[in-house]
Each structure stands twice: as structure tokens, then as C-alpha cells.
């Protein structure tokens, strides 16, 4: 697998840790969008596109973002599912709430994508064009 194109987009965002988005093209024929470039405590890292996991309200079946206290549709208090907090802290609770849509399955591939995306980001970060929210 070869990444043949990386495009970096900066978006106006309240989240200061989210530095930019990337779109990569693999082997000139497959595109993955919404890769996030995030400023972590140990430097920049790349997060693959993900969606928030949702759970249905028992009362009205509206699907709420996981760990919501009250239903967004009917206002009923949602049953708090007893999930043991992981000792790993914030990072693993994020993984409970977000599920990757596309992701590498080997360490080598993950590192290759991260290195390629971050190198392009470093090269382009001084003159990134801002794009509107999609
Ligand atoms: Zn409800």
C-alpha cells in the first residue's frame, strides 16, 4: 500500500487540540477523508475517521450519544449503564464513545499513515487554507 496523495484542511473549530483534517489517497484509487490531526500531550498524532456510538432511549427510541444524561428528544432521564472506568483514563473512554470507520490493522501501516500525514501537515501548516464546515 502506498499513500499517493495527502491533502490537509484546516477548519474553524472550538477544539484547540484538533489542528487539522487530512484526506489521503491510497494507491491512486481509494480515498479516506476526515482523518484528524490532533495535538496530544506527547505531540501531534493522527486519528482515523470515527463516529460517535449511540444508544436508543427506552422511552421514545431516539438515539442519543452514548453517556447522555437525558434523552435529547423526550427529556427522560437515561439509565446510566454501569461501565467500569478504565485505568487508562481519557483515551480509552474516548474509544468507548467513538468507533473507527476505517483504520489500519497493523502497527506498520498505522505508523506509515501517521508519518506521511504529519510530514505533509508540517510542510503545509504555515499556509493552510481555511475551509468552511461541511
Ligand atoms: Zn427519549
From TrEMBL:
<dbReference type="Pfam" id="PF04026">
    <property type="entry name" value="SpoVG"/>
</dbReference>
<dbReference type="GO" id="GO:0000917">
    <property type="term" value="P:division septum assembly"/>
</dbReference>
<dbReference type="InterPro" id="IPR036751">
    <property type="entry name" value="SpoVG_sf"/>
</dbReference>
<dbReference type="InterPro" id="IPR007170">
    <property type="entry name" value="SpoVG"/>
</dbReference>
<protein>
    <recommendedName>
        <fullName>Stage V sporulation protein G</fullName>
    </recommendedName>
</protein>
<keyword id="KW-0131">Cell cycle</keyword>
<dbReference type="GO" id="GO:0030435">
    <property type="term" value="P:sporulation resulting in formation of a cellular spore"/>
</dbReference>
<keyword id="KW-0132">Cell division</keyword>
<keyword id="KW-0717">Septation</keyword>
Amino acid at each position: 500500500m502506498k499513500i499517493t496523495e495527502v491533502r490537509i484542511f484546516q477548519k474553524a473549530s472550538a477544539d484547540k487540540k484538533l489542528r487539522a483534517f487530512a484526506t489521503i489517497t491510497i494507491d491512486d484509487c481509494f480515498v479516506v477523508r476526515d482523518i484528524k490531526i490532533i495535538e496530544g500531550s506527547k505531540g501531534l498524532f493522527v486519528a482515523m475517521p470515527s463516529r460517535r456510538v449511540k444508544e436508543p432511549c427506552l422511552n421514545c427510541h431516539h438515539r442519543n450519544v452514548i453517556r447522555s444524561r437525558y434523552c435529547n428528544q423526550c427529556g427522560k432521564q437515561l439509565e446510566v449503564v454501569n461501565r467500569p472506568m478504565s485505568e487508562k483514563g481519557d483515551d480509552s473512554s474516548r474509544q468507548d464513545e467513538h468507533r473507527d470507520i476505517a483504520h489500519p490493522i497493523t502497527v506498520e501501516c498505522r505508523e506509515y499513515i501517521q508519518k506521511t500525514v504529519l510530514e505533509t501537515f508540517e510542510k503545509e501548516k504555515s499556509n493552510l487554507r481555511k475551509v468552511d464546515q461541511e
